[in-house]
Structure formats: structure tokens, C-alpha cells
Design brief:
about 170 residues; 3-stranded antiparallel beta sheet; about 20% strand
């Protein structure tokens, strides 16, 4: 009812009248149009509409028939969805940046750990060398069975420590 009382150009707000003229010209040329635009009600309230129009001829006269649907809610929802999509995209970029920074930090810490373990292993291995070489000589020259038993325990434990250091270096 509201639409019937208005001139077709009256329903276009000032900023979209040119679009209205263009669409009217397309309708005259092709006989059918479909478009979305801003429109205004009688009370000058602006809304977003979807228009499908065609020209029909009845008794030698041409008439415009059309459907104008208010799609303001849908357009607002699309706008909100686009904003959310943009925010999500920004959040993903920031997240990827943080993940990259943290990954780089982890690699740095792992490198430091490896260097520390390697240094520790070599520092522990050096004092074991003389023990591993001298204890068998002491065992060979020792006559007291109790002392031989203690030297054997030292040789076994020194060998165990050497294996631990070697495995630690290999793991690093």
C-alpha cells in the first residue's frame, strides 16, 4: 500500500536516486530487473530492499509490476558476519604470529638444552678418563682381597658413569 502511493523515484534516498534511475532504464530496456538497494518509507526511514520488477503489457498499456522485500535484517546479519569474519581473520593472523614466535623460542631453548647437555657430558667424561685407566693398574698391583673387591666396585661404577655420560651425549 505504501509503495502504491509513491513515485518510483520517491522511494530512493537521495544517495541512491542515481541507482534508481539506472535500474529504471534497465527495466525499460530489458523488460525485467533484479537488484538490491536502499529505500525509504513514507516516514523517511531507510531500509535495504530486494527488488524484482518486470514490465507487462495489458490492453496496449505498459505497467510495472514488482516485488520489494525488506532485507534489512539479512543485510545487518551479513554485515555482522563479515565483521566477525574479519575479526577472526585478524585473530588467526595474530595467533599464527604468536605460534611462530613461541616455536622459535622453543627451538632456541632446545638448542641451549642440547649445548648444555653436551658440555655437561664432556665435562663429566674428562675426569672419568684417568679413573678408567688407573683403576685397572691399581687392581693388578693390589694383593689384599678386600681392597681388590673395592677397586672392582670402583671400576664397575666408573664404567656405569661413563655409559651414562655417553648415553646422555647421544640423546642430546
Amino acid at each position: 500500500e505504501e509503495f502504491k502511493q509513491l513515485n518510483i523515484m520517491d522511494i530512493h534516498p537521495e544517495d541512491s536516486r542515481e541507482l534508481g534511475k539506472n535500474e529504471l532504464n534497465k527495466l525499460i530496456e530489458s523488460g525485467i530487473i533484479k537488484f538490491e538497494a536502499h529505500f525509504k518509507r513514507k516516514n523517511n526511514e531507510v531500509f535495504f530492499g530486494d527488488v524484482s520488477s518486470s514490465i507487462i503489457s495489458i490492453g496496449g498499456k505498459q505497467y510495472v509490476q514488482g516485488i520489494l522485500r525488506d532485507i534489512t535484517d539479512r543485510k545487518e546479519a551479513e554485515c555482522k558476519l563479515n565483521e566477525a569474519h574479519s575479526k577472526l581473520k585478524d585473530m588467526n593472523i595474530n595467533l599464527e604470529k604468536k605460534v611462530s614466535e613461541r616455536t622459535e623460542r622453543i627451538h632456541h631453548l632446545l638448542k641451549q638444552k642440547d649445548e648444555f647437555i653436551n658440555q655437561l657430558g664432556h665435562d663429566l667424561k674428562n675426569p672419568l678418563g684417568p679413573l678408567l685407566n688407573l683403576l685397572p693398574l691399581l687392581l693388578k698391583d693390589e694383593r689384599d682381597e678386600k681392597k681388590k673387591e673395592m677397586i672392582n666396585v670402583m671400576i664397575r661404577n666408573t664404567g656405569y658413569m661413563k655409559n651414562l655420560v655417553v648415553k646422555t651425549i647421544e640423546l642430546a
